[in-house]
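hiii so um. not sure if this is the right channel but i have a protein structure encoded as tokens and i wanna go backwards to a sequence. like what aa goes where. can anyone help
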């Protein structure tokens, strides 16, 4: 639902007459989504429909800010500073997410043994809502040199996503892999925390997620050098092979140190996958079409997530919640991932990467470290990167 609602972003920007106003409004709505969650944690009750409605609002408003913010920030950061600025911004963002992850785990661990452990969740939701509202306030105080910069972006209709050489194969592989991954991905958290499986403490759970996230952060510069030297297609093949056995490994042993090792490998594998995907997308899709194509790809990816997760849910409902049912689910996910490998045989290759692309972190996941999306405004071949015209503002040249 969030992926569907984010399609209204171009209309919203035109309606508001400003990228900044649209982004700030969406950020405030996302902050507001934490209010009912905080109240529910305090009173100890929330209907399934209410939870889904809140989650939809949270994801939709978060995704709505993406393309509009990327276009807006491209007018704020001078061309000569963009690469360095967004590289530093990515590092700061990753450090902040890691700090928040560890702090959240510590708060939940401290409240786990209390009389009302839901108070710990209420505290987390309240802090998250305040932090998002503060970010909206900061966004509102940024300048906006050109409120409707998109009016100068030309989007030719002659090249559809399916007609870009190799793009169809790339998208087909990514969507097929998404289905296979999501068969098990949503159920790693209940597998770790549930009484019928590992029954880990919150501290151990957060440490496992942090291990995957940290290994991804450390590995990204090295993976960027590999992509520049050998090509993004080889990095994607490495990632494709590496992610296949990951869910099945969880069924071999429940030893915590072994699980940490799996998570470290998982962070590197998924970091390679995301980096190669970003580079191949930027190479296969024309600059002026990237925002549109990536927006529709996000929708298709969300649908693939629903298909995979629904299959896993049906299986768990039929088999019951037990260690053996989780094991079956993880092996099915590994088999589904292996079935996508033939699609890697013919894959378009990027012409090379001079630097690791800057990314935004959408979410932290137990099985993949984090879900990232590229920051379009830092690309040197962005549609904003054209020769300056007399009527242009200096920062839009």
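sure thing!! here u go:
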């Amino acid at each position: 639902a969030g992926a569907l609602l984010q399609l209204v972003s171009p209309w919203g920007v035109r309606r508001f007459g400003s990228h900044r106003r649209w982004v700030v409004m969406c950020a405030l709505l996302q902050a507001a989504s934490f209010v009912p969650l905080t109240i529910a944690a305090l009173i100890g009750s929330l209907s399934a429909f209410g939870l889904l409605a809140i989650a939809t609002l949270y994801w939709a408003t978060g995704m709505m800010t993406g393309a509009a913010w990327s276009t807006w920030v491209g007018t704020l950061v001078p061309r000569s500073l963009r690469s360095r600025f967004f590289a530093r911004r990515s590092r700061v963002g990753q450090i902040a997410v890691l700090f928040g992850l560890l702090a959240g785990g510590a708060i939940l661990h401290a409240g786990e043994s209390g009389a009302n452990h839901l108070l710990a969740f209420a505290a987390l939701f309240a802090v998250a809502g305040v932090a998002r509202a503060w970010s909206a306030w900061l966004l509102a105080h940024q300048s906006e040199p050109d409120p409707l910069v998109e009016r100068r972006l030309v989007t030719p209709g002659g090249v559809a996503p399916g007609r870009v050489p190799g793009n169809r194969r790339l998208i087909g592989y990514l969507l097929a892999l998404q289905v296979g991954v999501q068969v098990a991905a949503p159920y790693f958290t209940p597998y770790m925390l549930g009484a019928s499986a590992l029954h880990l403490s919150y501290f151990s759970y957060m440490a496992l997620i942090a291990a995957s996230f940290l290994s991804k952060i450390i590995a990204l510069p090295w993976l960027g050098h590999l992509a520049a030297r050998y090509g993004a297609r080889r990095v994607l093949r490495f990632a494709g092979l590496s992610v296949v056995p990951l869910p099945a490994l969880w069924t071999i042993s429940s030893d915590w140190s072994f699980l940490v090792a799996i998570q470290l490998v998982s962070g590197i594998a998924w970091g390679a996958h995301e980096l190669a995907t970003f580079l191949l997308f930027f190479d296969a899709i024309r600059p002026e079409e990237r925002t549109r194509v990536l927006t529709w790809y996000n929708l298709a990816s969300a649908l693939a997530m629903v298909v995979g997760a629904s299959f896993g849910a049906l299986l768990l409902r039929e088999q019951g919640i037990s260690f053996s049912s989780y094991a079956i689910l993880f092996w099915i996910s590994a088999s589904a991932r292996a079935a996508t490998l033939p699609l890697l045989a013919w894959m378009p290759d990027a012409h090379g990467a001079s630097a690791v692309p800057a990314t935004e972190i959408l979410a932290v996941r137990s099985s993949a470290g984090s879900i990232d999306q590229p920051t379009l405004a830092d690309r040197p071949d962005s549609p904003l990167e054209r020769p300056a015209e007399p009527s242009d503002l200096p920062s839009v040249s």
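oh and Confidence is low (pLDDT under 50) at residues 152-165, 380-397.
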